[in-house]
């Protein structure tokens, strides 16, 4: 037998699952660009962390400076991952805040907790 509180909780969990799936789908289809060196290196990444493109301004390619290019690539990769992670946090954070801010949920019991014997 279900109670009104259980029914409300079941509805909220169903809503949560639906919103979570929608957020994952939205973020999964996002494309972001990470940059380094003032835009000289650009790396594209999709929401599921698959890298899609690398663009390098020819002016920063010097065979004697491969270490600099490696540093710029790594910085652009980190920037892309940071941007994508922030989008995911934002999308999922709103859902979790909604779930935790349950105005219709059961009220906590009034008064101090019962004493343990």
What can you tell me about this protein's structure?
The chain has helices spanning 4-28, 66-100; strands spanning 31-36, 41-46, 51-56. It has 117 residues and is an alpha+beta fold. The protein has a single domain, classed as Ybab, Chain: A, CATH 3.30.1310. Strands 1-2-3 form a 3-stranded antiparallel sheet. Strand 2 and strand 3 (51-56) form a beta hairpin. Mean pLDDT is 77; it is low at 105-109.
Mean pLDDT: 77
The number of distinct structural domains comes to: 1
Shape: rod-shaped
CATH topology: Ybab, Chain: A
Largest sheet: 3 strands, antiparallel
Alpha carbon gap, first and last residue: 32 Å
Residue share in β-strands: 15-25%
What is the count of helical runs? Answer: 2
Largest sheet, spatial ordering of strands: 1-2-3
Q: What Rg, in angstroms, do the CA atoms define?
A: 24 Å
CATH H-level superfamily: Nucleoid-associated protein YbaB-like domain
Q: How would you classify the helix and strand content by structural class?
A: alpha+beta
CATH architecture descriptor: 2-Layer Sandwich
Number of strands: 3
Return the CATH class: Alpha Beta
Helical content class? 40-55%
Order of helices and strands: HEEEH
């Amino acid at each position: 037998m279900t109670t009104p509180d259980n029914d409300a909780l079941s509805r909220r969990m169903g809503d949560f699952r639906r919103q979570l799936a929608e957020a994952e789908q939205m973020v999964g289809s996002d494309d972001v660009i990470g940059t380094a060196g003032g835009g000289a290196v650009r790396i594209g990444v999709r929401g599921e962390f698959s890298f899609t493109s690398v663009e390098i301004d020819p002016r920063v390619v010097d065979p004697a400076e491969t270490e600099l290019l490696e540093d710029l690539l790594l910085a652009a990769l980190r920037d892309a991952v940071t941007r994508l992670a922030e989008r995911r946090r934002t999308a999922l954070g709103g859902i979790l805040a909604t779930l935790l801010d349950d105005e219709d949920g059961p009220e906590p019991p009034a008064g101090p907790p019962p004493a343990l014997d």
